[in-house]
Design brief:
alpha/beta; 2,3-Dihydroxybiphenyl 1,2-Dioxygenase, domain 1; 4 helices; 2 domains
């Protein structure tokens, strides 16, 4: 088994896709007006419209109601990313902070309120853990 993507359900695919394009520097690939993907070297962020929910079962997912998952992106320099984001991102949860597990992390919210963590490993153990993802 291999985790290949995370899907966010939203009321506005274009707005959310645009946010993640700007955040990651990637390009959203639209499969239709109700579904887009932002691909990274290690996985895909899928963005689906609420119109797609009926395909899985009515009421199986609701837009902008996530209160438990955090989307995490490994970055080369979280402090530099924070400086860049201040010109356009609007909802920061914290400034870059070194966490007890060895990552320097920045939490912000996407336009639907989902938590996004940008992080850079800073301890030897954390750097070794994420070495396979190094660019």
């Amino acid at each position: 088994m291999n985790l290949v993507s995370i899907r966010i359900i939203t009321n506005n695919v274009a707005t959310l896709a645009s946010f993640y394009e700007r955040l990651t520097g990637g390009t959203a690939v639209y499969l239709n007006e109700h579904f887009a993907e932002v691909r990274t070297p290690s996985g895909t962020l899928a963005i689906g419209s609420t119109a797609t929910v009926a395909l899985f079962g009515p009421g199986s997912a609701r837009a902008a109601e996530n209160h438990s998952a955090i989307l995490e992106f490994l970055v080369d320099d979280v402090d530099l990313e924070y400086q860049k984001l201040q010109s356009w991102a609007t909802t920061f949860v914290n400034a870059p902070t070194t966490m007890p597990w060895g990552n320097r992390s920045l939490l912000l919210r996407d336009p639907d309120g989902n938590l996004v963590n940008l992080f850079t490993p800073v301890t030897v153990a954390a750097i070794e853990k994420f070495a396979a993802f190094a660019r």
